[in-house]
């Protein structure tokens, strides 16, 4: 057991009220979180991972925070390798795994200083080293964040991590580390209730069924009232989830609301014309352990099957250049009208994004390559070198690159990233492009149909602001009622005065 492993930095979920400009971006990894204490790897629960000696031989004797990674879409394969007991470990399986490092917990310096230390102390060029530092890039704004998120989702990745510049390593869940992920929402049929293990007499989870017959449990998202009186068996609920497992079950399902406006027959009928995400056939990666491309801003080299030396293939190259090329080609052929909100547009629903185009981030000016000193020793990888750290480039010379795209790329620092096994309770979106909760701070009537939400301009505000506005409305209502009462009182008083004056006139006349 290792108690320090349970005190790693954990992430909160990003929402659009946090401006990501200037934060460090990296890909959210779908690997196994592993804490290196200088001798062995441990899980977040402090359990020992029985890794072969060659897999950890080149690591420094100081604590590191990272993930053991197998490839995009190979999370379950990675888990099956790493969590084997000592007598069942297959050493050859680890030759195609990589320990992706994103932080140094005991360094004590700011984030940027910790990253530079990692780059200088992890021998990434060494063939005996099975670790590398996760790449990072400074975010230029929400538009760029959305574009990278869409690119990662398309490539089969999980999301993006945002790290606050100049932040320290905290041994807890912190707002200096934010995750940006895609979620989907769909309907399911309630077929049963599972009792809570800790709350006596209350519901712990809803047993649900998808239109394709797959069954799963929804335990997150239920408040205390809903646990006392859960949705009835046979009712339809809306839930959100991150993705599907290899066997087709929703991962991290969270209850959103009861759909009293829909029957299960309505859901089944709608699924015939527009297949929900949950019943679409998932592309399962090959069972053969192999690389599934690299991560964003990083190059994870493969290894020669015979010699075991690191080699950079087309599958291992940084996908940023390809993503930017795809983005630019789409932009030139785009005939959609420009959104009136431009880069500040807050809309995230698919219909709006299909109907209008939005400006992408401003490209950086082309950098002019400076001639390298002839006194530097040549890099052993030559033009195929995958290293991007400033220390490596200052130490070794490299042949001039003819690809214009490589000259335009800014130098990423390389970093940390963070993945968690459990799903946080923070809000997300029904949209398939961005993690944002359109329902945050609002109360909805379950009898209302929210299918028209995408056709309305949605304004999201923090919950505290909604409460403040509600209080102001109540104050104005009270004042209006007071003025109305004053008006009625004044009117009655004036009417009485007029009657008295009329009576006086009649007496004088008589």
UniProtKB/TrEMBL annotation:
<dbReference type="GO" id="GO:0003910">
    <property type="term" value="F:DNA ligase (ATP) activity"/>
</dbReference>
<feature type="domain" description="PBZ-type">
    <location>
        <begin position="336"/>
        <end position="360"/>
    </location>
</feature>
<dbReference type="GO" id="GO:0006281">
    <property type="term" value="P:DNA repair"/>
</dbReference>
<dbReference type="Pfam" id="PF01068">
    <property type="entry name" value="DNA_ligase_A_M"/>
</dbReference>
<dbReference type="InterPro" id="IPR012340">
    <property type="entry name" value="NA-bd_OB-fold"/>
</dbReference>
<feature type="domain" description="ATP-dependent DNA ligase family profile">
    <location>
        <begin position="16"/>
        <end position="181"/>
    </location>
</feature>
<feature type="domain" description="DNA ligase OB-like">
    <location>
        <begin position="201"/>
        <end position="259"/>
    </location>
</feature>
<dbReference type="InterPro" id="IPR019406">
    <property type="entry name" value="APLF_PBZ"/>
</dbReference>
<dbReference type="Pfam" id="PF10283">
    <property type="entry name" value="zf-CCHH"/>
</dbReference>
<dbReference type="InterPro" id="IPR029319">
    <property type="entry name" value="DNA_ligase_OB"/>
</dbReference>
<dbReference type="GO" id="GO:0005524">
    <property type="term" value="F:ATP binding"/>
</dbReference>
<dbReference type="InterPro" id="IPR012310">
    <property type="entry name" value="DNA_ligase_ATP-dep_cent"/>
</dbReference>
<dbReference type="GO" id="GO:0006310">
    <property type="term" value="P:DNA recombination"/>
</dbReference>
<keyword id="KW-0234">DNA repair</keyword>
<dbReference type="GO" id="GO:0006260">
    <property type="term" value="P:DNA replication"/>
</dbReference>
<feature type="region of interest" description="Disordered">
    <location>
        <begin position="488"/>
        <end position="510"/>
    </location>
</feature>
<keyword id="KW-0436">Ligase</keyword>
<dbReference type="InterPro" id="IPR016059">
    <property type="entry name" value="DNA_ligase_ATP-dep_CS"/>
</dbReference>
<dbReference type="Pfam" id="PF14743">
    <property type="entry name" value="DNA_ligase_OB_2"/>
</dbReference>
<feature type="region of interest" description="Disordered">
    <location>
        <begin position="307"/>
        <end position="335"/>
    </location>
</feature>
<feature type="region of interest" description="Disordered">
    <location>
        <begin position="353"/>
        <end position="381"/>
    </location>
</feature>
<feature type="domain" description="PBZ-type">
    <location>
        <begin position="376"/>
        <end position="401"/>
    </location>
</feature>
<keyword id="KW-0227">DNA damage</keyword>
<feature type="compositionally biased region" description="Polar residues">
    <location>
        <begin position="357"/>
        <end position="377"/>
    </location>
</feature>
<protein>
    <submittedName>
        <fullName>Uncharacterized protein</fullName>
    </submittedName>
</protein>
<keyword id="KW-0235">DNA replication</keyword>
<dbReference type="InterPro" id="IPR050326">
    <property type="entry name" value="NAD_dep_DNA_ligaseB"/>
</dbReference>
<feature type="compositionally biased region" description="Low complexity">
    <location>
        <begin position="322"/>
        <end position="332"/>
    </location>
</feature>
